[in-house]
Design brief:
Elements (H helix, E strand, L loop, with lengths): L3 H6 L8 E8 L5 H4 L11 E6 L3 H10 L3 E9 L40 H14 L27 E10 L9 E7 L12 E5 L13 E4 L13 E7 L2 E3 L6 E3 L1 H7 L6 E8 L12 E7 L3 H12 L1 H6 L9 E7 L8 H10 L4 E7 L13 H7 L1 H9 L3 E7 L3 H14 L5 H10 L3 E5 L1
């Protein structure tokens, strides 16, 4: 739990008299709920006042709690936010998990505030520079001036319509996951692979304020599933978890809204946002993808752009000639999202695409336990390490944050065989914008 007194009291020291305001999204709710299958994250921004002499410590704490700093502003110890002090607390109100590590941003008035990209770059860079232990964290955003951002904002969303809403989990699978396609006709919304859009569910929250937006990774290419530049698709799992105090089953507000939408119904769309998960423009690049569950969304967009015939015809200037490797973690075979699409690509392009599933409840790791994605990485660590060393290789990780530690451990062992410290090497990858992480 965040200790307000410890941070505030430091402001009375000479160094601590300089205070900075952190705007943070994605803080986890509590350590107890972190142990569940469906981690909970705040949907709005949290503002935390931090004395100068505790900045490094607070950055590490926020990272440990799953948060992302989107802006840092200097203030005096007595300044207030919007007329009243607003201090972050990781155990504050419940709200829905935003898929793919993407927490929505919001203010107390119920209107979400889009992330300021420049502030986000600065904050992420500060986090990266201050980390002295080689901890995994999202890299600073690459500067790409031609990337569309925030065409539609929360106070003026585009009203799209549902074209289709199809189940992705086969019979006997776990949970509800849907592939939902929206009509963008009449909008100016353009996006590229690796970005996200915001969805604003109808109704009000428990405080009687309009629901805030949630961000979801886009599962289609820039041309859409119909390759006509008029649609955008999402891969959405209905959030379901047990309330840690009451034991009641809780369903996510926005994910439930999306999963049960019918064709023809309206949906409020904002964005696009995001520059962290963009593909390199080099058609000879190698792409390593590690995903769990709906973390497959951006990976599907990459693979469609690289291998789908209609998509390739729409992009004559981009002819992918590299190698893509997807390591995909799911609980059961019926939960292998987009299974037929992935197998078709693997069959048609065996020299350019490799699919390695990790099916936790059906396969065993070498120790006899469940086979998770980090176990697959350990199994292929030496081969992955050789590929990662190639300057044309980019690695993308999307899904549950828990896989990162195991991935790092496996690559640490592989790199050590050549006398290389993985944590140091990983930092260089981030500086080169070749290590892309979006976890929750």
């Amino acid at each position: 739990m965040y200790n307000q007194g410890a941070v505030e009291s430091a402001a009375n020291t000479q160094l601590g008299s300089r205070v900075f305001l952190y705007e943070v999204v994605g803080l986890r709710q509590s350590e107890e709920t972190d142990q569940t299958n469906y981690p909970i994250r705040k949907s709005g921004s949290v503002f935390i006042r931090v004395p100068y002499n505790r900045m490094n410590q607070e950055m590490r704490r926020i990272t440990r709690l799953g948060g992302t700093i989107v802006s840092i502003q200097p203030i005096t110890a007595l300044q207030q936010v919007n007329g009243k002090a607003s201090l972050g607390n990781a155990n504050s109100e419940e709200s829905e998990l935003a898929k793919s590590g993407e927490a929505a941003n919001g203010e107390g008035n119920g209107k979400a505030t889009p992330v300021n990209t420049n502030s986000e770059v600065k904050a992420e860079q500060q986090l990266k520079n201050k980390d002295k232990k080689g901890n995994t964290m999202t890299q600073a955003k690459a500067k790409k001036g031609d990337v569309p951002v925030n065409t539609y904002r929360p106070n003026a969303p585009f009203i799209g319509k549902v074209i289709s809403n199809e189940a992705l989990v086969k019979e006997d699978g776990i949970g509800i996951v849907q592939h939902i396609k929206f009509d963008l006709s009449g909008s100016d919304l353009k996006y590229i692979e690796g970005q996200s859009i915001g969805i604003i569910p109808p109704g009000v929250d428990k405080n009687g304020k309009p629901e805030k937006l949630r961000l979801y990774s886009i599962a289609s290419t820039r041309h859409g599933d119909d390759v006509d530049d008029k649609t955008v698709s999402l891969c959405v799992r209905q959030l379901e978890y047990k309330h840690p105090e009451t034991g009641e089953t809780v369903y996510g507000v926005c994910s439930t809204h999306l999963c049960f939408l019918k064709p023809g119904e309206d949906v409020k769309i904002t964005g696009p946002v995001g520059k962290e998960m963009l593909l390199p423009e080099d058609p000879d690049a190698n792409i390593i993808m590690m995903a769990t569950g709906t973390g497959i969304a951006p990976m599907r967009a990459y693979l469609w752009r690289q291998f789908k015939d209609a998509e390739k015809a729409a992009n004559p200037e981009y002819e992918f000639k590299g190698f893509s490797w997807l390591i995909f973690g799911v609980p059961t075979t019926p939960n292998l999202l987009y299974k037929e699409e992935l197998e078709e690509i693997q069959e048609k392009y065996p020299n350019n695409f490799r699919l390695t599933p990790a099916i936790s409840r059906e396969q065993k790791n070498p120790q006899g336990g469940r086979m998770y994605i980090q176990d697959r990485v350990a199994e292929h660590a030496d081969e992955l390490w050789q590929l990662i060393k190639n300057e044309k290789t980019h690695t993308y990780i999307c899904g549950l944050r828990g896989m990162e530690e195991g991935i790092d451990a496996a690559l640490t062992a592989a790199a050590a065989k050549e006398g290389v410290t993985w944590s140091d090497y990983q930092k260089e990858l981030k500086k080169a914008h070749r290590w892309h992480v979006e976890t929750y």
